[in-house]
Specification:
Largest sheet: 5 strands, parallel
C-alpha cells in the first residue's frame, strides 16, 4: 500500500515514515501542501496523510485540489486543532478521516485499518427507494413520515435525509465524515455535535421497537440494524 505523507515537522515525519515502512507500507514524504498536490499524480498513492499547517499551501487547500483530481482516494487529515469548525472544514474539503496531533503510530495504523475495512465492506449503490420497513416501523422518505405503533411522526427534512441514508445502507456503516460533507456543506458554523443530536433524535423516534438500533461505530460512523 502506497501512502503520500505531507508533514513539515522533521522529527515527527521521520518517526511516522519509519514506522509505516517497518509495517510494509511504501511511503513518500513531502513537506508542503503544494508538493503533495504535485506528487499525487506521479506517485499515485492508495492513501494520503495530510498535515493542516504547512508552508506554501495548507492541508485544507491541498485536500481540495486532490479531491478535484480523485473523488475516491482516502485522505486522513492530521491537525493539532480539535475545534468543530476545523474538523468540519477538513471534511468539507474532502477528508475521509481526521486524526488529532499528537498521535502515535499505533493510533494511525488503526485509522488506516478502519479505512481499508470500509473499502472492503462498502455496499454497492442501490436504486432509489422511498418506502422502507424498519422493524415494526414504516418510513416514507417521500413524505418524511415515520409510521409505527399507531402513530405518525413527521420528520424534518434533515432527519428524513439522514434516516434514508441509514436505511439505504442497512447493516452497513455510514461514514460520519460523509454525512457531514453531504448534509452540512452549506452551513459554515455547524459543529460536528449537531450530527450526534440528529442521530439521538432518530433513536428516540425508533425506541418503541427494541429490535431497531442505530449503532455508533467509534471512529467510523453509524449503522442502522434490525435484530
Amino acid at each position: 500500500m502506497k501512502i503520500l505523507y505531507a508533514e513539515d515537522e522533521p522529527y515527527l515525519a521521520f518517526v511516522i515514515k519509519d514506522g509505516l515502512e517497518a509495517q510494509g507500507f511504501e511511503v513518500l514524504h513531502v513537506v508542503t501542501g503544494k508538493e503533495a498536490v504535485d506528487q499525487f499524480t506521479v506517485f499515485q498513492p492508495d492513501l494520503l496523510l495530510l498535515d493542516y499547517a504547512m508552508p506554501e499551501m495548507d492541508g485544507i487547500e491541498a485536500c481540495r485540489k486532490i479531491r478535484a483530481k480523485d473523488k475516491q482516494v482516502p485522505i486522513i487529515f492530521a491537525s493539532a486543532h480539535s475545534l468543530g469548525d476545523t474538523i468540519t472544514e477538513a471534511y468539507r474539503a474532502g477528508s475521509t478521516d481526521y486524526i488529532k496531533k499528537p498521535f502515535g503510530l499505533r493510533e494511525l495504523l488503526l485509522h488506516i485499518e478502519n479505512i481499508v475495512y470500509r473499502q472492503q465492506t462498502q455496499r454497492p449503490e442501490i436504486p432509489e427507494q422511498k418506502i422502507f420497513q424498519i422493524g415494526q416501523y414504516t418510513f416514507n422518505a417521500g413524505k418524511n413520515e415515520l409510521h409505527g405503533f399507531g402513530e405518525c411522526i413527521y420528520l424534518n427534512r434533515k432527519e428524513s435525509a439522514l434516516l434514508k441514508e441509514l436505511c439505504n445502507h442497512l447493516d452497513y456503516i455510514v461514514e460520519r465524515g460523509a454525512l457531514l460533507e453531504k448534509y452540512w456543506e452549506d452551513s459554515r458554523s455547524i459543529y460536528t455535535r449537531s450530527l450526534d443530536t440528529y442521530i439521538a433524535k432518530l433513536r428516540s423516534y425508533l425506541k418503541k421497537d427494541p429490535a431497531v438500533l442505530i449503532i455508533t461505530v467509534k471512529g467510523l460512523g453509524y449503522k442502522l440494524t434490525v435484530q
